[in-house]
Design brief:
The protein has 290 residues and is mainly beta. The protein has a single domain, classed as monomeric porin ompg (Porin), CATH 2.40.160. Helices cover 11% and strands 44% of the residues. The chain is built from three helices and twelve strands. The termini are far apart.
Length: 290
Amino acid sequence: MKNYLLKIFCFLVITSTQAQEQIHQTFKDSRVINAHSVETLRKGILDFRVTHRFGDVGGGWPTFYGLETASDVFIGFDYGLTDKMMVGISRTKGSGPLRQNINSFVKLKVATQEIKGTNPFSLSILGSMSFSTMQSSPIPSDLNFFEKSVHRFSYHLGVLIASRLSERIAMQVAGSWTYRNIVEANDKNDLPSLGVVFKYQFSKAFGLIVDATFAFSEFRSNEVNRDDSKRFHSPIGVGFEWETGGGHVFQINLTNASGIMETDYIPYTTSSWTDGGYRLGFTISRQFKL
């Protein structure tokens, strides 16, 4: 009888170990550069994060290549309600027409990739909201005239699918929908987009990350500046992330997106990589167990 119970115990331990080996983390962090990743915080983990975007490198010496200015600043807290659901609240300076934003989000992981199982990908659903607290403009033609209080709100919904293709390579695709309650005369409130993410892990702690988002909008495709240059551009970022241990992740990047939130950088990226319109940015993340 004892031998029988010992065999059952060993079987359960081996099965449990194999199941844990099947499920792995695709990305180091819950965010990439501009985009969210499929990852969620573990239950009871509080993540305090600060993200900073400097000015255009093309600003040259007068702005010390953008380092003396800030296009956007993010300060926020994320929390894991369960191992598959997290929420967050933050404040951003903002870089689009609506600024001084209070932001919130919820992210739910629906499926997790298995190494030896039948599920080859991870899938998460993201929903976020931004509320502009900036002062109302006295000019009716300005977006921040705020004739109605609901004009201060913007929303974003995304479905994120990712797969760790090997020990070093991971990719993610996201289909998203952004809705703004107030827009320019020729623009549309609805803005669908497609995002792609690539990651190459050099070592256990150090990795290269790239993300890009492409909005589907006739207004953004056709709108030009006074010099006939393209007004809007797809936000693209490239960077490095470093996991220093103890729940600390540091990221440094270059991106042409001046805004940080989805409701900001997807509709309102007006800088181009080819014109020196990219900027240095960094993110510091520190996690605590509550």
